[in-house]
Design the sequence.
């Protein structure tokens, strides 16, 4: 498969919402605000987890990694989108598009797996509380995060070149606001079914397999919680898992609806807004969910700010 001379030399045109100029201005203001909140919130979570010794536990190690991933996830495409929304120039170079696609695939895949790792952490905390620190020891935490990053890199290394080198017969207009794989595959002027099938296979491994592990973990957690006699104990166990479960529902709900369906079943605008949701809204909400529903994080934030001993 040879890459198109036009796309490699002149880059691509990110159509985005250019057919709706008024909507572009509204989206610029909304997305700039949400992105600023996401950067501030996730940076705060990372700093608090590093600076407060009481948060040097496996749960908050994974939370800091999640916040770092959310920062990377949003930053991989939102700044470019803001530039395109603000001015008339909608172009992106071939190299920038390739980097954006690689980053998007890698970080998105890592986040899927990391959420499964966090579910296992919650399973150990609720179902094996007396052996929690023995089971989820620091070396295991590092290995699990390394596996997540390794899997994401494999997905990006395999799929990015395949998507970028498809022949497009001079087509440069990407009907999206970022270089996303489905949009790039749809531009191909050759049979891309093999690439689509490989992408679907990776989606099963990267998306559905971790989701199955999350469901199994929470099945065991639910069974353990039902065995707790006291209402206070059940409430504590629920609070331990509720933030993570909320984040999983938001992220996986939009990802599955977007990627695990036939290619033409969703409208193009619907796909753009769904991508905005899991790429910007979810990273913005995650710090709020973990801060508002977690007394330890709120306490650590107060201690870091010097308002509490």
Sequence:
């Amino acid at each position: 498969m040879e890459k198109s001379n036009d796309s490699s030399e002149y880059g691509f045109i990110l159509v985005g919402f250019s057919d709706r100029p008024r909507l572009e201005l509204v989206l610029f203001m909304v997305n700039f605000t949400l992105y600023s909140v996401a950067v501030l919130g996730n940076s705060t979570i990372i700093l608090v987890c590093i600076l407060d010794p009481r948060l040097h536990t496996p749960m908050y190690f994974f939370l800091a990694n999640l916040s770092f991933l959310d920062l990377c996830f949003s930053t991989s495409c939102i700044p470019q989108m803001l530039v395109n929304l603000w001015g008339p120039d909608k172009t992106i170079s071939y190299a920038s598009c390739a980097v954006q696609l690689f980053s998007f695939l890698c970080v998105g895949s890592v986040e899927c797996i990391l959420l499964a790792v966090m579910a296992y952490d919650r399973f150990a905390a609720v179902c094996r509380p007396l052996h929690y620190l023995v089971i989820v020891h620091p070396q295991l935490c590092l290995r699990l995060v390394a596996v997540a990053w390794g899997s994401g890199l494999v997905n990006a290394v395999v799929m990015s070149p395949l998507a970028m080198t498809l022949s497009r017969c001079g087509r440069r207009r990407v009907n999206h606001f970022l270089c996303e794989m489905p949009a790039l595959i749809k531009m191909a002027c050759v049979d891309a079914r093999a690439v689509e099938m490989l992408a679907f296979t990776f989606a099963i491994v990267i998306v559905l397999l971790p989701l199955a592990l999350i469901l199994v973990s929470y099945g065991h957690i639910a069974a353990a919680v039902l065995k707790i006699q006291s209402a206070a104990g059940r409430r504590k166990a629920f609070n331990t898992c509720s933030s993570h479960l909320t984040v999983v529902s938001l992220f996986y709900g939009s990802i599955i609806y977007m990627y695990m369906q036939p290619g033409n079943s969703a409208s193009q605008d619907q796909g753009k807004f769904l991508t905005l949701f899991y790429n910007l809204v979810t990273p913005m909400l995650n710090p709020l969910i973990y801060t508002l529903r977690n007394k330890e994080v709120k306490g650590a934030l107060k201690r870091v700010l010097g308002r509490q001993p």
Remarks:
- The beta strands are 12-14, 91-92, 173-174.
- The CA atoms of residues 52 and 300 lie 6 Å apart.
- The longest strand covers residues 12-14.
